[in-house]
Amino acid sequence: QVQLVESGGGLVQAGGSLRLSCAASGRTINIATMAWFRQAPGKEREFVAAIRWTGARTYYTDSVKGRFTISGDNAKNTVYLQMNSLKPEDTAVYYCAADRTIAIVTDRHEYDYWGQGTQVTVSS
Questions:
Q1: Dihedral sign for Cα atoms in the order 73, 88, 99, 65
Q2: Exposed, middle or buried: residue 107 (CB in 10 Å: 0-12, 13-18, 19+)?
Q3: Which of 36, 49, 57, 61 has its CA 20 to 30 A from that of 73?
Q4: Could you give phi then psi for residue 116, rounded to 5 degrees?
Q5: pLDDT number for residue 115
Q6: Cα dihedral 114, 19, 87, 97 in deg (nearest 10)
Q7: Pairwise CA distance, residues 16 & 43, whole Å
């Protein structure tokens, strides 16, 4: 099994920044993709960003492009999400996800491993 632990959430004013971290432990061998999803109250969990360790290729949903940056350390199985210029609509619980084989990085059903989530609240 793989355990994912997120940290770094909190309350910030609009225009501010936060940095989320996610550390994977356990049977992390061959983890190929790590990602961030978010879920706002009453809404479905949605893709935010992902990174494939091979080639360090990154992916973003359109609403965060230019504001959020995903990065990570493959050797440490740790992924980060730097969030700048935060908006109230970014308010959600942010979840870290990981898997060994991902065909469509934006599809939450493809990920087997999930963290417990960290709350991000952006006030206007």
A1: negative
A2: exposed
A3: 61
A4: -85, -15
A5: 97
A6: -10
A7: 24
- Amino acid 68: pLDDT: 98
How far from 80 is each of 4, 43, 44, 114, CA to CA, in Å? 12, 24, 22, 15
Q: What is the DSSP letter of 43?
A: S
Query: Residue 84 has which token pair?
Result: 């700048």
Pairing mode, strands 113-114 and 92-99: antiparallel
What residues does 37 pair with on adjacent strands? 47, 95
Q: Cα 2 from chain centroid?
A: 16
Q: From 84, 98, 83, 90, select the one nearest 23 (Cα to Cα).
A: 98
Give the pair of three-digit tokens for residue 119.
Answer: 């709350």
Do 72 and 85 contact (CB within 8 A), yes or no? no
Beta-carbon neighbour count of residue 6 at 10 Å? Answer: 22
